[in-house]
Amino acid sequence: MTPVRQRMTEDMQVRNLSPHTQASYIQQVSLFARYFSKSPELLGPQEIRAYQVYLTNEKKLATSSILIAISALRFLYKVTLHRNWTLEDIIPAPKKPQKLPVVLSPEEVLHFLDCVAGPKHRTILTTCYAAGLRISEAIRLRSVDIDSQRMVIRVEQGKGQKDRYVMLSPKLLETLRNWWRAVKPKPWLFPGDIPGGHIHREAVELACQKARRGCGIAKPITPHSMRHAFACHLLESGTDVRTIQLLMGHRSLATRHSPTMCLGAMLGSWISHSITSSMTVLLRKRSMFLRAGR
């Protein structure tokens, strides 16, 4: 391990960044150094700009992927290497397009879940939908996190290293109990292939894509689609936005993919329906007027 990598790792550790963030930042800085075959200490604004152009024009990475690299480089040069730069100018971040999520209907969700092969993957994705969990939170559930007395699920150290409680419906409780009776997993509710470890998210994502190809639904479907559907279906049923935010672990209305984005999608659908209805009325009146003129 190089001295720079060691210092950066320690800087992230003392700030209690999540292991996933630490691994991601180290990987991004390593790719940056490998591109120029030099230590980051020897690289400056010109090299950083050239690397951003490379990621954008040659690699054609998605904006979200570029933003991860930008965050890693900003941490490296500001915190670890103490460069007194104006980061917004030296390491600019691309503007991320705001897109509304494609939401499955309740009937589409049920049909998709029926097409998921294997009870483990089906139970995980069902939990993501019924409780609004991220896939990273669902795969790390333990049996002790299921509180059937209070009808809640404890999510321990979710995104942002925050604990929270989410709803546990009677139907989901029955599904989880059936899974537990069949396997009796310990300590993780969804164990992986390695003894003592939980299932990896990649395994669930592969099962999700296989089910999507077989279910005949044209919409894009990922494990996160279950979480989107959870929020939007609650909103459509009359649950207030703030309650949904708390259940999903969001602190701000400005949070990306917050329930307000689903509200925007619903509003767009309502406007489209209203315009169509208005046009239909106008055409009917025009038809009646023409007939009267004859």
Mind explaining what this structure looks like?
By secondary structure, the chain is mainly alpha-helical. It has 2 domains: about 5-90, Orthogonal Bundle (DNA polymerase, domain 1), CATH 1.10.150.130; about 105-250, Intergrase catalytic core (hpI Integrase, Chain A, Orthogonal Bundle), CATH 1.10.443. About 60% of the residues lie in helices and about 5% in strands. The chain is built from 13 helices and 3 strands; from the N terminus they run ααααααααβββααααα. The protein has helices at about 5-15, 20-35, 45-60, 65-80, 85-90, 105-115, 120-130, 135-140, 170-185, 200-215, 225-235, 240-250, 260-294; strands spanning about 145, 150-155, 165. It has a 3-stranded antiparallel β-sheet. A hairpin with a 4-residue loop joins strand 1 (about 145) and strand 2 (about 150-155). Helix 7 (about 120-130) runs antiparallel to helix 9 (about 170-185). The chain is elongated and about 60 Å long. The protein starts with a helix and ends with a helix. Residues about 265-280 have low confidence and may be disordered.
Identify the notable features of this structure and list them briefly.
13 helices; hpI Integrase, Chain A; 2 domains; DNA polymerase, domain 1; three-stranded antiparallel beta sheet; 294 residues; single chain
